[in-house]
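Researcher: Next entry in the queue.
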Amino acid sequence: MSESDYCATGPEERRRTGQPAEADGPPYAECVLCRQPTEYPETYKGVTLCPVCEWQEAQRSACSG
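Model: Structure for this entry, 65 residues:
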């Protein structure tokens, strides 16, 4: 088993896990917390966070239990 088999994060893996697809280019969706551009397309439905806010949210949820 190779590392690429273990850490599959391609478009099909994102679809299967429910993660949004990354945008190919502008326009990008705004982060709902800080209003910075995210890596998701503007047409994505749901909560979009920039990489910094995603990281901070993951830290908060990891330490809250």
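Model: The chain has a mean pLDDT of 76.
Researcher: Noted, moving on.
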